[in-house]
Known about the structure:
The chain has helices at residues 93-108, 117-134, 139-150, 156-160, 166-175, 181-190, 285-299, 326-343, 371-374, 378-390, 396-404, 446-460, 481-494; strands at 5-7, 12-13, 27-29, 227-233, 308-311, 349-351, 410-412, 417-421, 463-467, 499-504, 511-516, 528-534, 549-554, 560-564. By secondary structure, it is α/β, with parallel strands linked by helices. Helix 2 (117-134) packs across helix 6 (181-190), helix 8 runs parallel beside helix 10 (378-390) and helix 12 (446-460) runs parallel beside helix 13 (481-494).
Amino acid sequence: MIRVTLLVSAAIALHARAASLSYGPSSFTAPGSFPTSLYSSYYNNPTATSAQPQPVISDPVSHTVYPFGLTDPHHIPQDDPADPHPLPPRASDELLLQNAINQAQGLFNNPDFVSNTCARCIATLEIAKLLSLAAPEQGPAFAVFLCQQFKISNACNTTFGATTLGPVLTQVFANADVAGYDGRLLCQTFVPNSCTLPPTPPLNLTGWFAKPKPNPLPPPKKPSGKRLKVLHLSDFHIDPRYATGAEANCTSGLCCRANNLNKNSPNKTVLPAPRYGWFGCDTPFSLAAAALEAIPVLTGTENTGFSWTIYTGDLVSHDSENQLSRDYVMWTETVVYDLFKRMLGSGPVYAALGNHDSYNQAQDAPHSLGGALAEQFSWNYDHVASLWQQEQWIPGSTVAQARAHYAAYSVQRTDGLRVITLNTDLWYRANWFNYINLSRADNSGMLRFLTDELQDAEDHGDRVWMLGHVLSGWDGTNGLEAPTNLFYQIVDRFSPHVIANIFWGHTHEDQFSLFYANNATNISAQTALATSWIGPSITPLTNLNSGFRVYEVDSATFDILDAHT
Length: 565
């Protein structure tokens, strides 16, 4: 019989004098059999150990029974044609002419337009812009051509074709200032050895904040001495297409898939995928269930549940673009949120979307695009908001807010804590839509929403927990410079009296980082403003064991007193 054991590390005592809370045993042994009572019916025999269980999932929002073909590990669908992104409307001849003139003038005035790869990249973006405006249906084909010419990927057709990212790039080319800052940063980010990183546009904060930072700051709230247990989960990445016994040592892509082999041993499996997952693979159902079974036992919350849970994004597996679809994303959202509700006990779950929780992955369009293009991802915001309402995690007024704000929302709890979630795709480098009007630090309006909520929290004397997925700053490869610069200034303005803690995911690692006053020009204990906690992942994809974190939180200040990973 195969068994899996999950361990919990010793607590990090942040306040040694505070009374310690009791916990469960230091280890948990998963039962040998899958907990078949989780679902009423299955497409296969859930007690078999040679394959992952395949439950029949009914979506409570759309009332859809998802077919087995969506998650069949032996017949993974390719190039889903049912969910195409809209294309921009055809431009008039007059608009085409004016754009051609304006962009040509931009090229003539651009000092980099000489015989170098940066100039060549920008010039091709000019062509792409005109084509996207004049004949948008040809945009995806030209995107594939550019990918091949610039050697951006070895899978150009499947990555940038008409059923994957091609329509997204067509929209970006049509709307971006490709002769200016947008084009420079597009080339620098996506085209190897082209443009250097352009200077970040200066940040003008005039009028951004409704009120100056209080001086002196209001007195800190008095600790209650009562500790609450709060769970932090991140990066679940459940993989219903995980095939037990498939190649776990594949040479490219996502391993533990029936269609992904080791090229050096195509006829013989080098490392059969174990039932409870493996490094380099996403989370199979057996590991997902075992992890969620273990958490209440290990944390001593079997009878009480958590005061609340935060989830910092990434539910969906790391499939290639041509293997994803809207249904696959919605299936994953339905399954994982339902598992949280049924297996973690009482207490709401406050969730943020991750870069994989969209289709296409990492893509979210700003409302400033206008028209149908502004609403092309509303299907996802509507779906998750309805699921959160279905699970009774957020009230109806917050559901409407989440639908209107890219699935981001603010919950004003009755205990003096306000939880604000962000859709960090809107500052993520991999989101092509972010390269439209990059000279604006908040093209989506997300940071305006955040600032207004923080001001309201300050006015009402609330403490705030903020959570998102892609962390700001870090090593400079994740967040774009302008919006994360503005975010830092927002944290500085409202810390430490309003912002109690910030939470991220994305790295899959057990980490934390600090925000300092004045852009960290003087790093010291006296200038430290806020702590951001980066949660470990459930997926073992990046050669790390599955993990989670539990916080012991003062019920009045909402400061974290102890953290257990």
